[in-house]
Amino acid sequence: MRVGIIAENILENLALKLGFVPTPLGETLFGSILVRTIMVGTKVGIFEALASSSLTAQDVARSCGIHPGATSKLLNALVGSKLLCVSGNCYSLSRVARKWLLKESPKSQYDSVLFGLVEAEIITRLEDFIYSGEPLNVHPDFDVSESSSEMRSLYQRGMCSRAKLSAGEVARRIILNKGASQMLDIGGSHGYYSVAICRRYPNLHAVILDLPSAVKQAAPILAEEKMGEQVIHWSGNALTEDLGEDKYDLVFISQLVHHFNESLNRALIQRVVRALRPGGTLVIQELIRREKPDQGGQFGALLDLFFALTSDAGTWTHQEMASWQRDAGLIPQKPIWLRTMPGVGQQIAMKPVKQQFKTLDLIQNLKSQIQNKSEVYK
Ligand SMILES: C[S@@+](CC[C@H](N)C(=O)[O-])C[C@H]1O[C@@H](n2cnc3c(N)ncnc32)[C@H](O)[C@@H]1O
């Protein structure tokens, strides 16, 4: 899947296929206007205003407290972009807007789209980065002084709305032993993945480790799920906290390793291995970068650039993550691609069961004893 110019009839389709359409022009000129039109439309409340009935531009302007003339232009731009419909002089929501942009929709991306305004500011600094190679280090939770609490809260809510798209599938894909009781969700913020996994495994208890500033904003989001003591937060830095030893049946790390460079990630995985119980599972879930940029995967490649700008890091391939797991003593499993989140995958690995090794050692010992004895009797 990728973002780009979409043909609306056979002729345009043909022109696109034959390379007659100046796609870079369309993607830059219209792409940048489209991005801000959707974000501003969401922020000023256009979609909420139209949630229960169709309205004229004047009514929408009154309801949102915005300028009537400018509102007409914005509404027409949203009609052209298939987010609104118009009949006579009344505007209504398209199916797409109703499903993804309304605050109360079960699949709502409202907060996520609003957080896009912050991301859009960050990306304006790309050119400086390309010249200097100096990352901004602007992760919303890294620098408390630079990011307002509203921005950090928006970040957590935005992450949660993205997580809700795939949490059901994620919970279904994670296979645990019946006796599994302890889960650690590193960089888990809102905790929605832990909630979904614990609902699937009612005997499982999850601890969500995240930075103190993030936990402050994420706690009310988690509280809405009413999981009580089954899913709790732990304020701390995953890079420095003692994660313990033989404690967890499942360690889940979603969308965190793109904030760290390779050596930080390798060190983290080694500490995770110590924290896992024998037979335990590590799931790293990320927007995956393809091994080669021409293998498709525009999202992974674009975010690789974005995270290099924000955090001196980037997206990782399944193979890179599997190598951290293997080198730390885990047994990596086959790469997984999520169906509900295009471009996102899981790299799962198991901690070997010591007992297995003991049994294997025992068999090996017996074999060599038998061999030795038969040598003696020869
Ligand atoms: C992109 S969000 C992912 C949230 C969630 N796991 C998900 O997939 O929706 C990254 C999270 O990692 C947290 N984080 C970043 N650095 C961290 C660190 N050193 N220790 C703990 N958490 C960290 C951030 O605060 C943020 O909540």
TrEMBL record:
Keyword check for S-adenosyl-L-methionine: yes
Domain O-methyltransferase dimerisation stretches: 28-101
Domain called O-methyltransferase C-terminal: residue spans: 141-315
GO biological process, one term: methylation
This protein's record includes keyword Cell cycle: no
GO molecular function: O-methyltransferase activity; protein dimerization activity
UniProt KW keywords: Methyltransferase, S-adenosyl-L-methionine, Transferase
Entry-linked Pfam families: Dimerisation, Methyltransf_2
Annotated protein name in UniProt: Methyltransferase domain-containing protein
Protein's organism: Cyanomargarita calcarea GSE-NOS-MK-12-04C
